[in-house]
């Protein structure tokens, strides 16, 4: 009999991502289904609204990634209306983007994913002196690595655990045989977890400076609403910019002396995970960080392209405007398309829910029927993985020097071949490697901004096409970015100055999509195939692979329950 | 009402009223909506109280809790009571909760936020939740009628708390 392991929700709270994994006789995952279990359909809210307001709604799609949805939204309107943003706006958007990416990746590593590899409870058994020795070996330039420091961390941790509330560390499989770090490595990771927790609340101030406020920084169709006057005191001035510079320096230090050394240290204990969780082998990135305008794709620091069948010798061109490239299917999704159509390019996209699944609560879904609220995006009919691994592989395969350098260094440090990147650990490593690049580029972009300001250009917006009277009666556009978890694109159809249609294909829809008409699995499903399971009742291995994608299915509602068990309850966003 | 970009450079106001919720999920947006309602009388607490729309951010709000004497979270609170019922909870009641670790860095998880603040020993000394029982948590912009009707009463609760705290 097939054992069916159900992880629902993967993200711990109901109404999310649900994974059903069917184990074969040898205890490996033989088949897998990824299901989004709640409908959102935000597109419906946007219809009929002013396109210039869309970003403010889109910012609320996701609890944390506010800035990427706002960015994709203003870019799609600008693309439709033929607006080019000034140099400063391009740079500031790059700074906002990179800040978000660095913060998000560090948080993901320490506060979500590390706990799949680091046993918090084991850390309590660590010897502080041995931990200090380990820490100095792993990262000689780390600021804090004394026995006293680690003794204090152990005390803090013990106090927290003894309070009877594991809180942040609850709902993990402590003591699971798949945890392999020695207690000292676990304690070191806990210490850096706390450092990262303190640091992440500082870095995001960069969004406050340029976005006027945070959470939910301001964006603007035509540029950025960031008034700059270096000598003034009622706009962004040199004092504020110096603070940004300090925050970037701090971020670089966290990435270079904590994140990357920890990542490599943890990875070295789990070599078997370079053989697990690879999945599709197809990768897609729209690219981002323009240097000479969004229309000059060749100038992007994150290059655009697609890789099929792990073939790093060829990066295929990608065009979001081509109706034959990105299409959303609904073979296994609870939607219907007019006229019985089965796949639509987002400009023609439709959002008509039609639930035909079992009445919740249910024990299992039917993999042969419709089984998800996520549509199935495909690129030229191929299932694609998006995210850090896709970006790093596309950068590497495109021959970009920055990518070659960090990838080669990491492979050398871990003594593994490039093929090891096609794995769960490869995905987790790629996230760190692109963070290394992102934090360096953040510094570069800041220097670009200062140079441009000092050259006398303080323009941050082009408002010449602000008034709808300057717009054509009808226009279509697309706006893309590389959200921390992957390729994100918004498609807009403007008619008579209102939104006639708006479609969003988010990264987690690519990665978590159900099967398509041809029976091809989505990226999560594919990555789980062949995964060994030590204990089906504690599916840590499934979580490792799914978390390596950094799933974003939680965004997000915020209901507090009075019974205490459910302090928060979340709905799905995909 | 919104915090200006200079605010974080100053000393934070001793009391934070933090509105949480997703304005695109109907009644889940009652937290931010309540902030709008409170903004009518916000000047009364000038310098004492900061009102902040936290959306569905989780850990990203951690930096905004530090250095506060008191925190009032306004949010949707689901207990099964009739929609529009106003709830008031204390820190003790919250402590009985076991919110756990978020499965995604993207979960705007109030529980995780508070647990992280506790771990860093930066939890404000006094903590309250004023909430409204939602009717509908589903895609949509705007509150249901019973929740909208509850705004004045929920506002009054917040005002009473602020009067005690200030």
Quickly describe the structure.
The complex is a heterodimer of chains A (574) and B (166). Chain A is of the alpha+beta class and 574 residues long.
Describe the structure.
The complex is a heterodimer of chains A (574) and B (166). Chain A contains 16 helices and 12 strands. Chain A is α+β, with helices and mostly antiparallel strands and 574 residues long. In chain A, the strands form 4 sheets. Chain A has a 3-stranded antiparallel beta sheet with strand order 1-2-3. A 3-stranded antiparallel beta sheet of chain A has the order 7-6-8, with no helix packed on it. A 3-stranded antiparallel beta sheet of chain A has the order 9-10-11. In chain A, strand 2 and strand 3 form a beta hairpin. Chain A is globular. The C terminus of chain A is likely disordered. By secondary structure, chain B is of the alpha/beta class. In chain B, helix 1 crosses helix 5. The radius of gyration of chain B is 15 Å and the shape is globular. The two termini of chain B are 18 Å apart. Chains A and B meet through helix 4, helix 8, helix 9 and strand 12 of A and strand 2, helix 2, strand 3, helix 3 and helix 4 of B. Strand 12 of chain A pairs parallel with strand 3 of chain B.
């Amino acid at each position: 009999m097939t054992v069916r392991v159900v992880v629902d929700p993967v993200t711990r709270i109901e109404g999310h991502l649900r994974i059903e994994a069917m184990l074969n006789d040898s205890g490996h995952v033989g088949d897998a289904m990824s299901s989004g279990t709640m409908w959102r359909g935000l597109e419906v809210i946007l219809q009929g609204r002013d396109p210039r307001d869309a970003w403010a709604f889109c910012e609320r799609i996701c609890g944390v990634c506010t800035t990427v949805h706002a960015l994709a939204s203003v870019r799609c309107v600008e693309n439709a209306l033929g607006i080019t943003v000034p140099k400063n706006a391009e740079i500031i958007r790059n700074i906002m983007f990179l800040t978000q990416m660095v913060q998000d990746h560090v948080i993901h590593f320490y506060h979500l994913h590390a706990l799949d590899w680091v046993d918090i409870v084991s850390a309590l058994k660590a010897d502080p002196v041995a931990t200090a020795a380990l820490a100095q070996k792993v990262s000689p330039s780390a600021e804090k690595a004394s026995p006293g420091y680690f003794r204090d961390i152990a005390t803090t941790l013990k106090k927290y655990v003894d309070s009877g509330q594991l809180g942040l560390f609850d709902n993990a499989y402590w003591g699971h045989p798949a945890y392999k770090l020695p207690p000292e490595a676990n304690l070191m990771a806990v210490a850096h977890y706390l450092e990262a927790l303190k640091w992440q609340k500082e870095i995001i101030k960069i969004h406050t400076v340029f976005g006027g406020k945070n959470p939910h920084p301001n964006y603007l169709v035509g540029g950025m609403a960031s008034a700059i006057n270096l000598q003034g005191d009622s706009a962004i001035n040199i004092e504020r910019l110096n603070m940004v510079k300090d925050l970037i320096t701090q971020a670089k230090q966290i990435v270079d002396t904590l994140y990357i050394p920890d990542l490599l240290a943890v990875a070295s204990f789990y070599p078997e995970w370079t053989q697990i969780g690879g999945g599709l082998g197809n990768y897609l990135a729209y690219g981002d960080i323009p240097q000479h305008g969004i229309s000059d794709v060749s100038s992007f620091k994150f290059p655009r392209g697609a890789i099929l069948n792990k073939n790093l010798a060829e990066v295929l061109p990608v065009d979001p405007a081509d109706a034959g490239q990105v299409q959303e299917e609904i073979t296994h999704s609870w939607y219907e398309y007019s006229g019985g159509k089965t796949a639509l390019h987002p400009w023609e996209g439709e959002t008509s829910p039609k639930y035909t699944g079992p009445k919740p609560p249910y024990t299992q879904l039917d993999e042969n029927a419709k089984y998800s609220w996520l549509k199935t995006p495909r690129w030229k009919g191929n299932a694609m993985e998006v995210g850090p691994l896709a970006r790093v592989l596309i950068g590497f395969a495109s021959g970009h020097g920055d990518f070659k350098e960090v990838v080669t260094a990491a492979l050398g440090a871990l003594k593994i071949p490039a093929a090891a990147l096609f794995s769960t650990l490869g995905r987790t490593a790629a996230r760190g490697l692109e963070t290394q690049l992102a934090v360096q580029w953040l510094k570069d972009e800041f220097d670009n901004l200062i140079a441009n300001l000092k050259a006398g250009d303080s323009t941050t917006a082009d408002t010449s096409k602000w008034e709808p009277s300057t717009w054509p009666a009808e226009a279509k556009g697309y706006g893309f970015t590389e959200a921390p978890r992957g390729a994100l694109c918004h498609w807009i159809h403007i008619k008579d100055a209102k939104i006639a249609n708006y479609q969003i294909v988010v990264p987690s829809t690519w990665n978590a999509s159900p099967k398509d008409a041809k029976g091809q699995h989505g990226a999560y499903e594919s990555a789980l195939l062949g995964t060994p399971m030590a204990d089906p009742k504690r599916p840590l291995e499934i979580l490792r692979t799914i978390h390596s994608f950094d799933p974003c299915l939680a965004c997000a509602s915020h209901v507090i329950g009075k019974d205490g068990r459910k302090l928060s309850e979340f709905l799905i966003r995909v | 009402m919104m915090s200006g970009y200079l605010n974080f450079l100053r000393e934070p106001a001793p009391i934070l009223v933090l509105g949480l919720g997703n304005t695109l999920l109907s009644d889940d947006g009652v937290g931010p909506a309540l902030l709008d309602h409170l903004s009518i009388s916000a000047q009364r607490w000038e310098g004492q109280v900061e009102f902040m729309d936290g959306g569905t951010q989780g850990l990203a709000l951690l930096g905004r809790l530090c250095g506060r004497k008191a925190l009032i979270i306004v949010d949707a609170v689901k207990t099964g009571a009739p929609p529009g019922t106003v709830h008031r909870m204390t820190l003790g009641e919250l402590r009985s909760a076991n919110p756990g670790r978020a499965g995604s860095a993207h979960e705007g998880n109030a529980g995780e936020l508070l647990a992280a603040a506790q771990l860093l020993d930066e939890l404000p000394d006094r903590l309250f939740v004023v909430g409204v029982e939602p009717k509908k948590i589903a895609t949509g912009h705007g509150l249901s009628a019973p929740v909208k009707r509850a705004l004045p009463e929920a506002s009054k609760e917040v005002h009473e708390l602020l009067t005690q705290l200030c």
